[in-house]
């Protein structure tokens, strides 16, 4: 009886596997290189900043592939909720198929600003080119 239940359980668990290697390859495809990344980043200002019209001194760096997304570092100075400029900070923006899928640091603060500053600075030191936005 135990053997029957064990064999049934193994068959049931093995039958649940539906993901193939091809599915993983398709999921890991970030899409084509985002040639319009400057416009995509600028269009995301309203979700990234409390006052999107206050953004100044913005420099956007060319995208680099990171996993299943393209990553773009944005250095910008914008006003906070109190109306004061915060200084230049880095924002890491993930783009997939010419759309912003996420950006860090997130508004909830789960990923700290210092981590993003360090990450973007590290990539910039490798020779990524940046242009004023």
Q: Roughly what percent helix?
A: 25-40%
Ranges with pLDDT <50 over ≥5 residues? none
- Largest β sheet strand count, sense and barrel closure: 6 strands, antiparallel
N-to-C SSE string, H for helix and E for strand: HHHHEEEEEHE
Beta-strand proportion: 25-35%
Radius of gyration: 21 Å
Tally of separate domains: 1
Overall spatial form:
globular
User: Helix segment count?
Assistant: 5
What's the total number of strands? Answer: 6
Alpha carbon gap, first and last residue:
70 Å
Structural class: alpha+beta
Mean pLDDT: 77
Topology summary:
Elements: H1 2-15, H2 21-27, H3 37-43, H4 45-48, E1 56-61, E2 64-66, E3 69-77, E4 89-96, E5 99-104, H5 113-125, E6 130-132
Folded structure, characterized:
- The chain is an alpha+beta fold and 133 residues long.
- It has one domain.
- Helix content is 34%, strand content 26%.
- It has 5 helices and 6 strands; from the N terminus they run ααααβββββαβ.
- Strands 1, 2, 3, 4, 5 and 6 form a 6-stranded antiparallel β-sheet that branches.
- The N and C termini lie far apart (70 Å).
What are its keywords?
133 residues; alpha+beta; six-stranded antiparallel sheet; 5 helices; 6 strands; 26% strand; globular
Short description:
The protein is of the alpha+beta class.
């Amino acid at each position: 009886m135990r053997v029957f239940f064990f064999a049934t359980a193994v068959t049931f668990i093995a039958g649940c596997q539906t993901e193939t290697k091809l599915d993983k390859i398709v999921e890991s495809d970030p899409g084509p290189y985002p040639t319009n990344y400057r416009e995509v980043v600028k269009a995301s200002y309203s979700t990234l900043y409390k006052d999107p019209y206050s953004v100044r001194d913005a420099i956007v760096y060319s995208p680099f592939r990171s996993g299943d997304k393209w990553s773009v570092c944005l250095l910008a100075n914008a006003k906070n909720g109190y109306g004061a400029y915060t200084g230049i900070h880095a924002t890491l923006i993930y783009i997939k198929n010419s759309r912003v899928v996420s950006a860090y640091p997130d508004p909830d603060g789960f990923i700290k600003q210092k981590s993003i500053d360090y990450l973007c600075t590290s990539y910039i030191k490798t020779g990524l080119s940046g242009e004023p936005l």
